[in-house]
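Side project, low priority. Logging it here so it doesn't get lost.
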Amino acid sequence: MKKTFLGMMVWILGCVSLPAQEVEKFQEVIAIGMAMPPVTLQGELAKRSAFVAAVADALAKGLQEIQGKRLSKGRTAEGEEAGASVESWWEGSFPGGLLVKSKKTIQKAAVIKSSTVLSLPEKLYGKSLVVEIINGKLVKPAPGEISLPQLKKTLQANGIIVEKEEYDSAGGCTVTLFFKQNHPPTVEVIAVVGKTPLTKVKVKATDRGGGVKDVRLYFDGKLVEGAPVKFKVVGKVRTGQVVQKEFTVGLTTGYHELQAVAVSDDGFDGPPASLNVEYPDKKK
């Protein structure tokens, strides 16, 4: 799904360079989930059920730690009276197709119901599949319908790795998930207004760990079309590496807005940079 971070809106005229934001450090999130199988299940089905439920528990914990566009937090209804029920919910989605929804009902400071729903992508799983876990136990579908290798493949495609899975004598499962957080790139816009309407605009994108898949420029709100990009790479390492793309726009008399955005390898837009220019440049 398409979303954007809060952008930088800057009003400067003439020859302008907008500085890219400071490169953020690569962050890691590790979450541990625990679950028990339903008492009606035994053997391999019980083990499979506990694993899936533990993965859902770890997803619910880990995703709530991730900040930014990967997670859309839901509302929390604050109970004013003692003993009032409080419901909180949230959902997060990933470019790889994994959708996670979670809801908790709390009364007198105790969780009375916790549910998590995983929607697994058809393109990776082979069919559309919705997994539901209530109070730490798998309720649907039947554990035999879930391919654990494909579930792990789905997690990997969404930047989530199963680092450890352990089982106790009672049939409970503990799962440790590692979440990769590859930040989308920032951009820097450079435009020099000359004596003719045709103006070259350079957009530099700084990789913050998530790669740079594309760089886009919008001129007065319209996407500037161009030939397929051949990036000029400046730098030797991935994080902090700079790529550059050049555009040509035709200015008319008055003020114009240039807005640039860079896209990460997994399809997330980084924070945009906006620039207003005036033609002709009265300062020259």
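Brief comment: The chain has two domains: 8-25+182-279, 27-181.
Revisit when time allows.
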